[in-house]
Design brief:
The structure holds 2 protein chains of 2 kinds.
Chain A: H1 27-32, E1 48-54, E2 60-66, H2 68-72, E3 76-80, E4 90-91, E5 98-99, E6 105-106, E7 112-118, H3 121-130, E8 132-137, H4 144-149, E9 153-162, H5 165-171, E10 174-182, E11 194-199, E12 205-209, H6 214-225, E13 232-236, H7 251-264, E14 268-271, H8 274-280, E15 287-295, E16 301-311, H9 319-328, E17 338-346, H10 361-382, H11 389-396, H12 417-427, H13 430-443, E18 447-460, E19 469-476, E20 482-486, H14 495-507, E21 514-516, E22 519-520, H15 535-565, H16 574-578, E23 581-584, E24 587-590, E25 597-599, H17 600-609, E26 615-621, E27 626-628, E28 633-635, E29 639-652, E30 658-668, H18 675-693, E31 725-731, H19 749-753, H20 755-768, H21 770-774, H22 782-789
Parallel strand pairs in A: 1-14, 12-13, 16-17, 20-21, 30-31
Antiparallel strand pairs in A: 1-7, 2-6, 2-8, 3-7, 4-5, 9-17, 10-15, 11-12, 11-14, 13-22, 15-16, 18-29, 19-20, 19-26, 23-24, 24-25, 27-28, 29-30
Helix pairs in contact in A: 6-7, 9-10, 10-20, 14-15
Chain B: E1 8-13, E2 16-21, H1 29-36, E3 55-59, E4 68-72, E5 85-87, H2 100-107, H3 117-133, H4 143-146, H5 158-167, H6 174-177, H7 182-191, E6 196-202, E7 205-211, H8 215-224, E8 229-231, H9 237-244, E9 250-253, E10 263-267, E11 284-289, H10 294-304, H11 306-312, H12 318-321, H13 326-331, H14 340-345, E12 349-354, E13 357-362, H15 363-366, E14 367-369, E15 372-373, E16 380-387, E17 393-400, E18 411-420, E19 423-432, E20 439-440, H16 442-448, H17 455-468, H18 479-504
Parallel strand pairs in B: 1-5, 7-9, 8-9
Antiparallel strand pairs in B: 1-2, 3-4, 3-5, 6-7, 10-11, 11-16, 12-13, 12-16, 14-15, 17-18, 18-19, 19-20
The chains are: A alpha+beta, B alpha+beta.
Chain lengths: 790, 505
């Protein structure tokens, strides 16, 4: 688009591929249709088609389940209810609170109640219709407000604080407060939840799953089937999109097919229909946040208090961790001396809300960005020469040498926020456009425009320390090709391609000589889900570690071999020898005598002849992270990914319809491993975030039934919604603390940048009236904007 | 009539001929590809023609070549492919060599998870192919519009649009992927003129479809089988099947009746006495066959009714516009049908045909309730006449939807007013999405007559309009929002029209 820079590679003339844009490892499979997803795997002749009957009531007691007619239906192979389950009946990533099949009560519409396996989809449909579930409905809890009124929570309240917010608030020259709502978001991965189970010998079972977390599925399948984890293999070749929606939500479909395969001895497959997926799977958490902010005339934030209540749905899932990340990001990019952050997860009768790109971070940041916009509106209402929102934001950014401790005690090291913000304001010509927009708004009867900046500081690492580990298996073959397996899963984010580049560079071979294998619990055990923007950080580092182990063995072997060859050489110290062998351009050679040289394939072949192990495991655990849950202090993040965005919106005054004519995104990705991939994450994450803050609305009826379950009712951004002027760039840093090869996580931060679009809408409304702006919540849908305009 | 009845359907996939009979003719095209031929490159993501992942190309081979159009294979049925070649993503790369579209997508990182990718590749190929075969000089491609029928959740589209621009000078490389043999072409040529009557059991139900090739035959079947449902482009019936498993036991497919196609712009008929509606005093009219597709109407509207073109560009995506018909849109009688507000304010007339004869009906009398019309069981809609606005008439059409493209209207509106000497002399106001049918606001229309063309007039009219309607709240918007929009649109109309007139008068 206009002014968008071409993808710049960092090291075009340098050897190696790390830092260069190479195509996605599966790209050719994608464009030819050859890339296989779960529903594309050819069926075995005896394969069963699996589905479930879900609850039609959000809350109630099961009075009777009648499956007689369905069971009698020809072609039906198996029908199970909770009572028929062989072992564990509940599962969950943090607590086993989620029923595999509803037991005495139903907790949300779409909750699996009866499991059915049939020989074909038509029979499955018929059988589903014949099942009768009688439910005595009880009063459902359908919103955070309901939950608070009924005191229905999942877990205790959490609190992070620093200074004395109450006291500082009491003396602040200005205090603003409000209640801010942010909406949920459907992942809308294009490939719906799917799994295929194939029974094996000796009680073993293999499950092909579209999942970000194979280990979790392995664990739960073992528990539910009552077998050992060693009897369960879970594989994932790729996902057709996930965005967090397959971190835990892939478990239920996998368990259902596992149960069928176990009971019938036949292969069993499930693929959720789009509506079924929309209705029964968890989404981004909606939030209700009470906030209060104290500040002075210059716009310095003196105190901030916020209490966030998230809509966790009817099970714990990952909600406490999501809430925790909201709290870690409640400060946005601002240092606030006196701050008090509280949070609690609410129980509601919706599907258990789950991970979604940003993982609570966006919800936390949106509240303070809303407050910042309100500060600017408030100050400028009484004095038009008061600081603008951008002035306020710059004034309050975390400092580099002081004012740099977060409310949870972590120091913001290597802080580039000031430079980034100044650059993005300048490059976007923010100040001039702001003045111009405000002038035009005063005279334009048809359109309202708005502009806003949002700085982003996103913490990288799983906040659960235990999860910051990964292992990898690297196998070199005698023809010089290499296979790599990690616990990381590919969902389009480019993990496999980045690992391919990293490993290829360890051996100085072409990336085409490195294959990234299907993720499987058979090769990589006890892995963390692919999430938290950390999958390259973790799995890439583990793969490099394994590759280096092999390289070290080969170096040692080559040293011996070259020594033997040049008998005149006196054997040298092992320490010197280690750097003696150079891997370069598909070859290895002796630095002391470059004529001692062999190709990598020859080296692999000969090393094997000399009985050198050309396979290795690598392991990585992120250093220097810790968090004490007693004191709620520590350093949960290895580093912070930083950036800032300026966005402009145009609003139809009569219908509230919004478009984004321009966005300028500047983001720190460290030293990008593959700029093409990182550009894709930047733009894709931003546009997905635009959806969240504008038109993606989850609409329920009064009974709690989700009405926006499909593409015709739930509107993700289309190509024409992308800003026609979309300037993006990577902010170059040479930070000491980064992930593998100087890179930084890039999966989630871009989504938070889209909050600038929402802030711009708020700014636009403020030009109509302060009260209009104050009425705006998130998302800023056309209807919400029109409503705010009054 | 003695004619050879066929009970099977014939078509080809990537040049390979298939003959299908029995229940399988009621499969969707994507089911046929994925389940019967194991071509799984065609992906199913939304199952309602709303994402484009299942896009394939379909063309009817002729001796001048084959013009392929993109199609959503998830909501079109196998019987609708009769005589056509369907091209899937598997056909593009030959001998391991990618087409330029595929290459551009690889190089620009146009795929991430890859699930929507085959659909994008096919849509882009279609655009390149159509441009190359179009006799006219092609303007630069409006790629967001061309790809408005395809959604992607991963890339944010920029890489895809970059890939599209990179390959737009390519012809789509039809020589690589169109593999229809001369024998097949001749065979299809022959089939094009023969009707079929296919039946079988599909998903446990007895189903039948008749496909006539003349209007006379269609009307005779219509009279013989009053319970049968007519099927035009299937862009709605296809969704009813995939989403609700709703389908009539007998379908009459109008897809091959030549008399129902075609669009002409002609002189209006003079006012005649009698019950039949005339062309409302217009000078010219668009006459469209009921089976005229949105793509065809969009093409024609660009020159003859640009205001309508701006709405039609937002009607589904190309994959829908190539198959959805104006007749289907009208007879479907939805309150949010995109074409109806225009038809209503222009007092379009509909020609209904039966084996007994023909009659013309004012579109404003045609709808009796939501999804109900005055069409009789032996009738079908043959054509529609849309009077074009005169130079004095100021026509504006509005579609308010959650998303600009590929969405269904929350509220749609058409305003056509005549101004003389600063006053309103005639007013036609039609609204969709605010009641059971698209309707004219006669009270507001009357109130506007003789009022001055001033903002206050339209603000007041907006308030009256909001009072005159009784909208509902649904997934697309609350009743309150619909009222606000209706009120606001009249004021927007004033500003737009007065700035137009300010320039001209």
């Amino acid at each position: 688009m206009n002014g968008a820079p071409m993808i710049r590679d960092r090291k075009q003339d340098e050897p190696g591929t790390t830092g260069k844009t190479i195509p996605l490892e599966s790209a050719i499979g994608h464009v030819t249709g050859a890339a296989e997803f779960i529903t594309d795997i050819p069926a075995r002749s005896d394969e069963l088609c699996v589905g479930f009957v879900g609850s039609t009531t959000a809350s109630g007691r099961i009075v009777e389940i009648d499956v007689t007619a369905a069971r009698a239906c020809p072609g039906v192979a198996l029908i199970l209810t909770a009572a028929d389950l062989p072992a564990a009946r509940r599962f969950g990533p943090l607590q086993s609170d989620e029923p595999v099949l509803a037991e005495e009560e139903v907790l949300f519409i779409g909750q699996p109640v009866v499991l059915i396996a049939a020989d074909c989809p038509a029979t499955l449909d018929r059988a589903k219709n014949l099942v009768q579930v009688r439910i005595e409905a009880t009063e459902p809890t359908l919103s955070v407000d309901d939950a608070i009124a009924r005191q229905r929570f999942l877990g205790p309240e959490r609190r992070f604080h620093q200074g004395d917010a109450a006291a500082a608030m009491a003396t602040a020259p200005h205090v603003l407060e409000g209640v801010f709502h942010s909406g949920g978001q459907e992942h809308f991965y294009f490939e719906t939840q799917a799994a295929l189970a194939i029974p094996g010998e000796d009680g073993q079972i293999t499950i092909h799953s579209s999942t970000q977390g194979p280990t979790e599925i392995q664990r739960v399948v073992a528990l539910v089937l009552g077998i050992g984890m060693h009897q369960v293999v879970v594989t994932c070749k790729r996902m057709g999109g996930a965005f967090g929606g397959k971190e835990t939500q892939g478990t239920s479909p996998a368990v259902l097919v596992a149960l069928v395969a176990r009971a019938t001895g036949r292969a069993a497959r499930i693929a959720y229909g789009r509506e079924e997926d929309g209705e029964s799977t968890g989404k981004r958490h909606p939030y209700r946040s009470e906030w209060q902010i104290g500040f002075d005339d210059a716009g310095r934030i003196l105190a901030y208090q916020v209490t966030m209540h998230s809509d966790g749905g009817a099970g714990l899932d990952l909600s406490p961790s999501v809430l925790e990340r909201s709290m870690f990001h409640a400060d946005g990019a601002y240092h606030i001396e006196h701050i008090d952050i509280r949070g609690r997860v609410c129980f509601t009768n919706h599907p258990p809300a789950t991970a979604f790109r940003g993982f609570g971070g966006p919800q936390g940041v949106a509240v303070i960005e809303n407050a910042v916009q309100e500060m600017a509106i408030h100050l400028r209402e009484s004095n038009p020469t008061s600081p603008t929102a951008a002035d306020i934001q710059r004034l309050n950014l975390y400092g580099t040498d002081e004012r740099n401790v977060t409310p949870y005690g972590q120091v913001v090291h290597e802080n580039h926020l000031h430079e980034i913000v100044d650059q993005v304001l300048e490059r976007s010509d923010h100040d001039r456009r702001l003045a111009e927009i405000e002038r035009r708004n005063a005279n334009d009867p048809l359109w309202l425009r708005g502009i806003a900046m949002v700085p982003v500081k996103f913490g990288l690492s799983f906040t659960s320390k235990m999860m910051n580990q990964a292992n990898a298996l690297v196998l070199a073959f005698t023809d010089g090709t290499v296979q790599v397996s990690t616990g990381g899963t590919e969902m389009g984010q480019g993990l496999n391609t980045k690992i391919r580049q990293l490993v290829a560079d360890v051996f100085a071979i072409a990336p085409e000589s490195v294959a990234i294998m299907t993720t499987s619990t058979e090769k990589n055990n006890n892995t963390s889900p692919t999430a938290a923007s950390a999958s390259t950080d973790l799995n890439g580092a583990a793969a490099v570690s394994a590759a280096r182990t092999i390289r070290a063995r080969m170096s040692e072997w080559a040293t011996r071999r070259f020594n033997a060859k040049t008998s005149s050489d006196t054997p040298s110290e092992a320490g010197d020898d280690r750097d003696r062998i150079v891997f370069e351009d598909g070859h290895l050679f002796d630095r002391r005598d470059p004529s001692n040289r062999m190709s990598f394939p020859d080296a692999c072949r000969d090393a094997r002849m000399d009985r050198i192990d050309l396979g290795a495991r690598g392991f990585f655990a992120t250093p220097r992270i810790d968090f004490d849950h007693e004191t709620e202090k520590g350093s949960p993040f290895y580093y912070f990914a930083q950036g800032a965005t300026v966005a402009e919106v145009r609003i139809d005054r009569f219908t509230g319809e919004l478009s984004v004519p321009r966005a300028d995104v500047l983001i720190d990705v460290g030293r990008s491993i593959n700029p093409g991939i990182d550009r894709g994450q930047l733009v894709g994450g931003f546009v997905q975030g635009m959806g969240w803050v504008t038109n993606e609305c989850l609409v329920h009826d009064e009974q709690g039934r989700l009405l926006t379950t499909g593409a015709s009712t739930y509107k993700i951004p289309a190509a024409s919604d992308v800003p026609p002027v979309f300037n993006w760039d990577f902010f170059s840093t040479d930070d000491r603390v980064t992930a593998i090869a100087g890179s930084k996580g890039v999966g989630e931060p871009p989504l938070l940048h889209a909050i600038a679009v929402w802030s711009a809408a708020k700014h636009a409304l403020s030009c109509a009236s302060g009260s209009a702006a104050r009425r705006l919540h998130l998302p800023a849908s056309a209807e919400a904007i029109r409503h705010a305009l009054g | 009539m003695n004619r050879p009845e066929r009970s099977s359907v014939e078509f080809s996939v990537n040049g390979r001929p298939y003959e299908v009979e029995g229940g399988d003719v009621f499969l969707t095209a994507s089911e046929f590809l994925r389940e019967r031929t194991r071509r799984t490159g065609t992906k199913i993501a939304c199952e309602e023609g709303d994402c484009g992942s299942c896009t394939v190309l379909v063309g009817r081979p002729t001796d001048q070549g084959t013009s392929y159009l993109p199609m959503n294979s998830c909501i079109r049925f196998v019987f609708q492919l009769d005589g056509c070649d369907m091209v899937t993503v598997e056909a593009l790369a030959s001998d391991g060599r990618l087409t330029s579209v595929q290459e551009a997508m690889v190089e620009c990182h146009g795929s991430q998870c890859g699930f929507c990718t085959p659909g994008f590749v096919m849509a882009m190929t279609a655009t390149c192919h159509q441009r190359a075969t179009s006799p006219e000089e092609s303007p630069p491609v409006d790629w967001p519009l061309e790809l408005s029928g395809n959604l992607c959740r991963c890339t944010g589209y920029l890489p895809i649009l970059e890939a599209a621009r990179r390959c737009e000078s390519s012809d789509g490389e039809i020589s690589k992927w169109s593999r229809v043999t001369e024998t097949t072409r001749r065979r299809f040529d022959l089939l094009g003129n023969t009707p079929f009557d296919a039946s079988g059991t599909h998903r446990g139900a007895a189903r039948r479809v008749l496909s006539p090739v003349t209007l006379e035959e269609a009307l005779r079947i219509r009279a013989d089988l009053p319970e049968a449902q007519l099927i035009a482009g299937a862009t709605d019936l296809g969704v009813q099947w995939t989403k609700a498993r709703k389908a009539a036991a007998v379908w009459i497919d109008l897809g091959r009746v030549p008399e129902l196609r075609g669009i002409t712009v002609c002189e209006a008929e003079p006012d005649r006495s009698g019950d039949e509606p005339a062309d409302g005093g217009a000078a010219r009219v668009i006459e469209a066959g009921a089976m005229a597709t949105w793509a065809e109407l969009l093409d024609r509207s660009r020159t003859d009714l640009p205001e309508f073109a701006s709405i039609l560009e937002r009607f589904g995506g190309p994959q829908i516009r190539n198959y959805g018909t104006i007749g289907g849109n009208i007879v479907n009688a939805s309150s949010i049908a995109d074409s109806l507000p225009l038809l209503s304010v222009m007092d379009a007339s509909l020609e209904l045909a039966s084996s007994e004869g023909r009659r013309r009906v004012d579109v404003n009398r045609f709808f009796t309730a939501n999804r109900r019309t005055m069409i009789q069981a032996d009738e079908l809609l043959a054509s529609v006449r849309i009077p074009l606005p005169s130079p004095l008439q100021r026509l504006r059409l509005y579609k308010v939807s959650r998303r600009h493209d590929l969405d269904i209207a929350t509220v749609s509106a058409a305003f056509c007013l005549t101004f003389e000497a600063g006053r309103i002399t005639r007013a036609a106001i039609a609204l969709g999405g605010v009641g059971p049918t698209v309707r004219r606001l006669e009270g507001v229309e009357r109130w506007l007559i003789d009022r001055p063309c001033r903002e206050e007039t339209f603000e007041a009219a907006g308030r009256l309009a909001a009072d005159e309607i009784s909208p509902w709240s649904d997934v697309r918007g609350t009743a309150e929002y619909r009222r606000q929009v209706v009120g606001g649109l009249l004021t927007r109309y004033f500003h737009e029209v007065s700035s137009d007139m300010g320039a001209g008068e």
